[in-house]
């Protein structure tokens, strides 16, 4: 047997005593030989070595035929890839070992089995003799199959603690709540039980980082990268750019040269965009620690990837201006006009900063950066506009200053339409709302989304239905884990085998963007034969991006669900849309009343989310004519849970919250009298959906679900002060003048840029057509069902602000 590990590394204990106590021969090898693969291979062959424990990172550089005498191979010290196992499985008896020094080197082992290669990663196996494994949550409760938690080790091999470090010993070696008088070692490793009792290693608990408000598990990104057939070793870390902002950098070794574009595209198919690294760097070899693990601290600074074009200089003044802005925002000294913004470290936040600078001189929007990501393409597609900022600020001032008299005059013009609207609503006054549809099984799509998870909670709390929830993932177990993590975040629910709701939630791995949701045909048809109704709350709700990304979920996903509704058992389709489909502009029309009876009123919008939601609604209207039973729920501006103040996890991605944050950071709000701020509490919107979707006598309806108690900016400023938030309410003219004066100052530039980019949230009149969105029909039905919207008050604002402070958003 080979002694690969140095005597200062715990693996050497296993190497020495297992072979010597068994009567074998131990061969010691020098570092010089280990550091030369040719010499290492010669040493192994000359000494007829049959057993070796090697780090995966070292083994990755050796071809199996170079070690012909090796019979038993053990890997340990870091995660292994399927590719590595596949290379060696036919040549040796392959074993993967896991264990920290605190449990006497090895705690679990896995011996190669072909059936295990279907798991997302290679398992670390089962506990060895005299060792017990507990997978626990943060409250030391045992977790069921598929749920991720911390690995805790008990047994005869456990250390007593750390020498002369009583505080660390007390933290890591804790009382075993399930075995009197025994200690547990908390490893800090994130793992989960697989169905056959083996254990899957998911990463380190402390490998989570927070970037742009998102909590990111680095191990999840690494696992996805390792699925590429050419990639061997992977490390993803968080770094800081020259502006002090964190970003993700990926490093890899590979057979051949998989391009950064190829790897980026692969990740974008499986992960949200905020988990896709900004930089990809291929290395000849990973830097290693003496113990054979990747030395993350020694990973080099990224070399930013541009395009495959020859680096070209600016062609004109427009290119020069764009280049200057990119170089300042991205912190780079030189950028060619064919370099790709997002391959240079750009992201949506930096895109906003770029647009805010360019908006001084050009007509440009955030989506232009996504559509034209090079200086050449952007320069060819934006228009110069003299005094652009002045024009924009003046337009906002005019829109905001129109005041209540402007709204009143519009109402007066629409008085005949209002009469007709009220007359239509009278038809719902005598409908029997007590009858419920005979449903048993509900398919909830988008169940891990912000509104979707609240709809699931309401279904579980207020109905007896069984709910089927497709969730993207690599396995049903991972899908279940993701869903219950959301339930825990928002409601404190645990997946502990004791929750009565667990039997009513069927979570499975499914993807709305795939045919048959990524299921086998047989499983798809079985599902189609058992589901009674669909609730689709899935959506790409980002404010910026490529149109194709929005189309894939909002349009094509909708089409797949319409098809599913007509497959097997006939199902009612409930589609969650947005009141923003009633926005934008209509040619030669200054204002319009938009009601639950309207859909396509020839409106246009440059917002991809709104465009694709409207397209989905049009498709539903066409499908109704072919016999589809459906309801459309247009929801308003979703805010926090009215009881807890908790908001969506990716809070920094929300335009409304970003606007509020920017104004609070500036300490100033415009004194707008119109009640244009809409706070639709997510728990109440979800409750309204569940109240309405199964009413037997309400089919093929459209509802407007938003809080009728709207708030003015002046009132909101007063409520903020009650929550001890120091803000100044100032006249609109003064506020816009302040923005104009402070626009290019470093302390205020970013906040003012956000306000201008997202200004349509408050300044509805900034669009060419004023839409008056009505909800009297919907409110009348909800009131008949005993539902009332809550008013925003000081206590609720305090809950809101307490949460944003708790999660570090402000």
Automatic annotation (TrEMBL):
<dbReference type="Pfam" id="PF13193">
    <property type="entry name" value="AMP-binding_C"/>
</dbReference>
<dbReference type="InterPro" id="IPR000873">
    <property type="entry name" value="AMP-dep_synth/lig_dom"/>
</dbReference>
<dbReference type="Pfam" id="PF00550">
    <property type="entry name" value="PP-binding"/>
</dbReference>
<dbReference type="Pfam" id="PF07993">
    <property type="entry name" value="NAD_binding_4"/>
</dbReference>
<dbReference type="GO" id="GO:0044550">
    <property type="term" value="P:secondary metabolite biosynthetic process"/>
</dbReference>
<feature type="domain" description="Carrier">
    <location>
        <begin position="313"/>
        <end position="389"/>
    </location>
</feature>
<dbReference type="InterPro" id="IPR045851">
    <property type="entry name" value="AMP-bd_C_sf"/>
</dbReference>
<dbReference type="InterPro" id="IPR036291">
    <property type="entry name" value="NAD(P)-bd_dom_sf"/>
</dbReference>
<protein>
    <submittedName>
        <fullName>Amino acid adenylation domain-containing protein</fullName>
    </submittedName>
</protein>
<keyword id="KW-0597">Phosphoprotein</keyword>
<dbReference type="InterPro" id="IPR010080">
    <property type="entry name" value="Thioester_reductase-like_dom"/>
</dbReference>
<dbReference type="InterPro" id="IPR006162">
    <property type="entry name" value="Ppantetheine_attach_site"/>
</dbReference>
<keyword id="KW-0596">Phosphopantetheine</keyword>
<dbReference type="InterPro" id="IPR036736">
    <property type="entry name" value="ACP-like_sf"/>
</dbReference>
<dbReference type="InterPro" id="IPR009081">
    <property type="entry name" value="PP-bd_ACP"/>
</dbReference>
<dbReference type="Pfam" id="PF00501">
    <property type="entry name" value="AMP-binding"/>
</dbReference>
<dbReference type="InterPro" id="IPR025110">
    <property type="entry name" value="AMP-bd_C"/>
</dbReference>
<dbReference type="InterPro" id="IPR013120">
    <property type="entry name" value="FAR_NAD-bd"/>
</dbReference>
């Amino acid at each position: 047997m080979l002694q690969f590990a140095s005597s200062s590394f715990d693996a050497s204990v296993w190497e020495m005593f297992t072979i010597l106590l068994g009567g074998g021969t131990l061969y010691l090898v020098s570092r010089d030989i280990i550091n030369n693969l040719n010499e290492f291979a010669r040493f192994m062959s000359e000494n007829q070595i049959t057993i070796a424990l090697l780090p995966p990172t070292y083994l990755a550089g050796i071809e199996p035929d170079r070690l012909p005498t090796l019979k038993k191979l053990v890997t340990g010290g870091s995660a292994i890839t399927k590719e590595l196992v596949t290379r060696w499985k036919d040549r040796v008896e392959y074993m993967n070992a896991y264990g920290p020094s605190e449990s006497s080197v090895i705690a679990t082992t896995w011996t190669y089995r072909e059936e295990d290669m279907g798991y997302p990663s290679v398992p670390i196996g089962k506990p060895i003799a005299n060792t017990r494994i507990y997978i626990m949550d943060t409250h030391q409760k045992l977790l069921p199959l598929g749920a991720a938690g911390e690995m805790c080790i008990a047994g005869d091999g456990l250390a007593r603690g750390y020498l002369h470090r009583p505080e660390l010993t007390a933290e890591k070696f804790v009382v075993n709540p399930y075995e009197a008088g025994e200690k547990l070692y908390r490893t800090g490793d994130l793992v989960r039980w697989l169905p056959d009792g083996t254990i899957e290693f998911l990463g380190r608990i402390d490998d989570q980082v927070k970037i742009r408000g998102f909590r990111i598990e680095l191990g999840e990104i690494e696992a996805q990268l390792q699925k590429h057939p050419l990639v061997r070793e992977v490390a993803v870390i968080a770094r800081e750019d020259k502006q002090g902002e964190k970003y993700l950098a990926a490093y890899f070794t590979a057979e051949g040269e998989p391009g950064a574009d190829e790897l980026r595209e692969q990740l974008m198919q499986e992960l949200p965009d905020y988990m896709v690294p900004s930089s990809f760097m291929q290395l000849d070899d990973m830097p290693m620690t003496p113990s054979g693990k990747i030395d993350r601290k020694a990973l080099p600074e990224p070399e930013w990837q541009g395009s495959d074009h020859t680096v070209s200089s600016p062609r004109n003044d427009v290119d020069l201006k764009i280049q200057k802005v990119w170089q300042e925002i991205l912190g780079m000294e030189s950028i060619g006009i064919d370099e790709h913004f997002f391959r240079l470290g750009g992201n949506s936040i930096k895109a906003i900063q770029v647009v805010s600078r360019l908006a001084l001189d050009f007509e440009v929007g955030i989506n232009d950066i996504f559509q034209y990501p090079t200086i050449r393409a952007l320069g060819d597609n934006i228009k110069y506009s003299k005094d652009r900022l002045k024009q924009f600020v003046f337009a906002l001032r005019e829109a905001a200053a129109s005041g209540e008299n402007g709204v009143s005059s519009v109402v007066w013009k629409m008085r005949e339409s209002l009469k007709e609207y009220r007359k239509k609503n009278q038809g719902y006054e005598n409908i029997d709302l007590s009858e419920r549809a005979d449903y048993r099984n509900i398919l909830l799509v988008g169940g891990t989304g912000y509104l979707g998870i609240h709809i699931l909670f309401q279904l579980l709390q207020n109905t007896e239905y069984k709910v089927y929830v497709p969730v993207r993932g690599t396995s049903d177990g991972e899908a279940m884990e993701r869903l219950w993590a959301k339930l825990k975040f928002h409601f404190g629910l645990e997946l502990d085998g004791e929750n009565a709701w667990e039997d009513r939630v069927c979570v499975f791995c499914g993807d709305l963007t795939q045919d048959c949701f990524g299921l086998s045909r047989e499983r798809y048809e079985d599902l189609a034969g058992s589901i009674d109704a669909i609730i689709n709350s899935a959506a790409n709700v980002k404010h910026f991006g490529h149109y194709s990304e929005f189309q894939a979920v909002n349009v094509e996903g909708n089409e797949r669900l319409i098809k599913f509704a007509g497959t097997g058992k006939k199902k009612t389709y409930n589609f969650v849309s947005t009141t923003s489909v009633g926005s934008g502009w209509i040619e030669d029309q200054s204002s319009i009343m938009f009601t639950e009876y309207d859909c396509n009123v020839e409106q246009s919008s440059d917002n991809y989310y709104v465009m694709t939601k409207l397209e989905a609604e049009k498709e539903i209207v066409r499908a109704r004519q072919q016999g589809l039973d459906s309801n459309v729920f247009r929801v308003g501006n979703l805010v926090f849970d009215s009881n807890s103040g908790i908001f969506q996890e990716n809070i920094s991605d929300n335009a409304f919250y970003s606007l509020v944050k920017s104004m609070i950071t500036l300490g100033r709000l415009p004194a707008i009298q119109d009640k244009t701020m809409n706070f639709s509490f997510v728990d109440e919107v979800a409750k309204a959906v569940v109240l309405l979707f199964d009413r037997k006598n309400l089919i093929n309806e459209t509802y407007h679900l938003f809080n009728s108690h709207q708030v003015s900016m002046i009132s909101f400023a007063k409520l903020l002060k009650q929550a001890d938030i120091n803000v100044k309410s100032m006249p609109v003219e003064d506020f816009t003048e302040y923005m104009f004066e402070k626009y290019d100052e470093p302390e205020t530039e970013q906040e003012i840029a956000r306000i201008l980019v997202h200004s349509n949230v408050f300044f509805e009149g900034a669009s060419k057509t004023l839409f008056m969105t009505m909800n009297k029909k919907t409110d009348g039905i909800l009131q008949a069902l005993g539902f009332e919207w809550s008013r925003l008050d000081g206590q609720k604002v305090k809950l809101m602000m307490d949460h944003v402070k708790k999660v570090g958003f402000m």
